[in-house]
């Protein structure tokens, strides 16, 4: 396993270095200079979106909740289908028309005279929540390397963060996309092949999966985890609410902004859709199969570990049940998920800070070479800050991603949707979306989620959307 994993790291760094030689301008570093086709960007978007949260968080969620976790998976699939089937074409057209390189810039460009304020506010929101998101990926790397090789979690976090920060600095968007393609293939290999392996092992050892899952806990086969009435409705809505966040994630939407033409958009949407359905089916099955294998005593020596941290179920099953060489490939897919997401968020955060804050505050435009150097320095600084968060925060990967997902999605989702599909959105509506989405995520998470049973993902998005529309009517743009 160690040999396979080291080969994977070497291959990732090698591919990033080779292609980073093409990142010669700041536009190449920030958005790839329109050099990628639809299929490549679709795989990059999928690898970016499905982080440690999918391979550790969702598999652990399914292991804990049983088939009730299907609502979270369904919410994510619906969100992915929506951004690719409905938003992708419009985003590419807007990028072509405005020439902007970031989501913050796309929003700001719509409102002359307010560009600086909108860019600065939106960029600060991105950087704040992305620090938690990147920290979740570094933390996930530490968890997997600790469980697989017995490595101290701190060293696991160090290895993951150093590799990711290193290849981001080398080539920016170009290096991230080419490594994402490799990582998307490894991830789908893990999420498709391992459930098949687990199913064959269950058959060979006479494990009756459905019966074993029900024996472990009757609620495992309940779509609402045994809840009824309004509690069941809120449980389902909480899972489905993951869909909202996809509409506002800059690290995903920039892939659509970078697509060269409409033909590539059509190709990309079907690559993304196929990958998504396979991946989410695999993640849910891994968690459910994990319940059966624990119930039948195949993972007895790990039961206490899993009781304290269900997110270890995938690495525990892989290291226990399959040949070490195959396990090395499968676990490389898990690490791939974390690296692809962290790298994309690092480049988006750095470019938001350089293009949308520092760039707007400059009195004199910097030349391309200095802008490129600044982006690389900021990548290093943001990566270091996320590393510090990763080793100090105690939240689970699922919890960290849920919080960051809600904050980003609720702030930007309503704003971007209304810019793309509603002509009467005003700058006041944009401010309302950004401020409400951010503040309500923080407030709802601390004070209301546990008491109401309504997730911050649902509450903050709906409130931000309502406020954006309301403020657009109260304070319309003068031209209307």
Mean pLDDT: 82
Whole-Å distance between the termini? 63 Å
Which runs of at least 5 residues are low in confidence (pLDDT < 50)? none
> Roughly what percent helix?
over 70%
CATH superfamily: Sodium/glucose cotransporter
Q: Helical region count?
A: 20
- Return the string of H and E elements: HHHHHHHHHHHHHHHHHHHH
Radius of gyration: 22 Å
CATH class: Mainly Alpha
Structural class: mainly alpha
The description of the largest β-sheet is: none
Strand content: under 5%
Number of strands: 0
The dominant shape is globular
Summary, kept brief:
This protein is 81% helix and 0% strand. It has 20 helices and no strands.
